[in-house]
Amino acid sequence: MPLFSNAFEDHIASLIQKCPGMKTLRQIHGRLLRNHILSSSPFTFTLSKIISFCALSPNGDIHYAQRVFDDILQPNVFSWNSMIRGFSQVQNQSSEPIALYRKMLSSGFANPNSFTLAFVLKACSNISALSEGRQVHSHAYKYGLDSSPFVQTGLLNFYAKCEELASARFVFCDISDKNLIAWSAMISGYARIGMVNEALGLFREMQEAGLSPDEVTMVSVISACAKAGALDLGRWVHSFVDRKGIRADLVLSTALIDMYAKCGLIEKAKKVFDDMVERDTMAWSTMIVGFATHGLVDDALKLFSRMLDSKVEPNHVTFLGVLSACAHSGIVRDGRRFWSAMHDSGVQPLMEHYGCMVDLLCRAGLFEEAYSFVRRMPFPPNAVIWRTLLAGCKKNEFQDKEAIIAEHLLRLEPLNAENYVLLSNIYALRSHWDKVSKMRKKMKDNGVRVIPGCSSIEIDGFVHKFIVSDDSHPEMKQIREALKGISRRVRLSGHLPWTSSVLHDVDEEEKENALCEHSERLAVAFGLIKTRTPTVIRVVKNLRFCADCHEVIKIISKEYGREIIVRDRVRFHRFVSGTCSCNDFW
């Protein structure tokens, strides 16, 4: 057999492909180098196979691949693709694949193919590199690869993950032969930004087109329901999974637990969890977090103990769950115990864990300890932690620290309206209207706009959204009439509006009217119009509960004999007979 025959090179490639690990690969590579076989240009293919094994094999070594790659004078497109894809796999949040792609283009030795662009788009989506991804999109047209299914799917995934839904929809509509992956990517994109009606509409189109959904698609649909708090739709999707015999693997079962928990049906979430044959760390953690957000601290902590007894290792999410459970209930002693246990388990605290501890201490009235805890952090606190401390000032009136905290917060986030609103709230509570006016002027000068309160409620499989003081809903006239009736009954119960939380130096009547326009009240009023006992009214709000709305909805639950569940940005509130599951501690 001639030394440089195709058959010989195929034989070498076959040996490389069958390598059990890097040790054997290095032996083959060393033998080829010692015999000066790889110095000949016909063996670029063999070098490409070595690179591919090192870069893409689970037992490979990307750095070894890099050294081999750097020794090739004119790498072919297969070698470039292997390196780009390899770095994407081992360094999920790295920009290295994008840098390699730029080098490939500047080298002039190889043009990208459809796989190249798909791999680079995946890297762009991993780090939300929108500008770079758009450039790759233009390259798809330049190299005539825009009609490739791999490129189209890559573009769709990229735009969906970057939450550029208009661009994603443009790519989606341009796909002539829409496959299951393209439908799943588009549904996932809608789910990411809470467009549940659009996600479910696309899911129905998918069924009409005769495409059978798989586990990945169903996880996207279930996630959309979870984000919007659409329980009826989520139940329907669950029954669809059962009817179609779709395998409820670990990921799908965990998504169902998350959906039921986020839709306010924690008992059903627990049933799904209990019915699982196998549970991994994420399944345990999701259930613990679910209990925590519902304020069921005992259930969360007992489940954590069961998890440890089952020899399942807790991770960052697990400890976030138990620490937030302690924070929601003000259990400082247990919070400190879990903080120590996290270190003992070898889980290094992230910023979010420090945030939980600061929240716990502030809620428990231990502001000075919380402030000292922040000053001892091993890395600079983020805006969330400073904001939590500022809220602690509001509650405990530590005015001497207020200015220092506010300075840190506004330096980190000078354009976040929430910071100005929080400061304005503090000043308003103290009737410091001159400072409230200064905050308003500062916001205007910096071009800061307040995020409006938005609440949603699902009625008959459709999610209705309400924004504070918004008149766009087609049934707003009936809603306002209902609100008038609610206000009368609430007043007769003895409630006086907590107008101190309204950030305007105006008369009391205007403040009361402003409170009545809050989005959660609009959603609850709509729920009262459209449903009857014993249907539970379920509302999802994008911001934290306002104190007056919380008190009013307690009264509504008693006066109207309705169970009302509200999920705000922090936790669940279950109102029954005039009481809330949070025990007014949130």
3D structure, described in words:
- The protein has 586 residues and is mainly alpha-helical.
- Among the domains are: 74-177; 455-580, no CATH class.
- It has 30 helices and 6 strands.
- Strands 2-1-3-4-5-6 form a 6-stranded mixed sheet, with helices on both faces.
- α30 (547-559) links the parallel β3 (537-541) and β4 (564-567).
- The longest helix has 17 residues, at 476-492.
- The termini are far apart.
The number of helical elements comes to: 30
Shape: globular
How is the main sheet built? Answer: 6 strands, mixed
Based on the structure, what is the oligomeric state of the protein chains?
Answer: single chain
Main sheet: strand order? 2-1-3-4-5-6
Structural class, by secondary structure, is: mainly alpha
Strand portion, in percent?
under 5%
Low-confidence parts lasting 5 or more residues at pLDDT below 50? 503-511
Number of strands: 6
Topology:
Elements: H1 6-17, H2 22-34, H3 44-56, H4 62-70, H5 77-90, H6 96-107, H7 114-126, H8 130-142, H9 149-161, H10 165-174, H11 180-192, H12 196-208, H13 215-228, H14 231-243, H15 250-262, H16 266-275, H17 281-293, H18 297-309, H19 316-329, H20 332-344, H21 351-363, H22 367-375, H23 383-396, H24 399-412, H25 417-429, H26 433-446, E1 454-459, E2 462-467, H27 476-492, H28 508-516, H29 519-530, E3 537-541, H30 547-559, E4 564-567, E5 572-576, E6 579-580
Parallel strand pairs: 3-4
Antiparallel strand pairs: 1-2, 1-3, 4-5, 5-6
Helix pairs in contact: 1-3, 3-4, 3-5, 4-5, 5-6, 5-7, 7-8, 7-9, 8-9, 9-10, 9-11, 10-11, 11-12, 11-13, 12-13, 13-14, 13-15, 15-16, 15-17, 16-17, 17-18, 17-19, 18-19, 19-20, 19-21, 20-21, 21-22, 21-23, 22-23, 23-24, 23-25, 25-26, 27-29
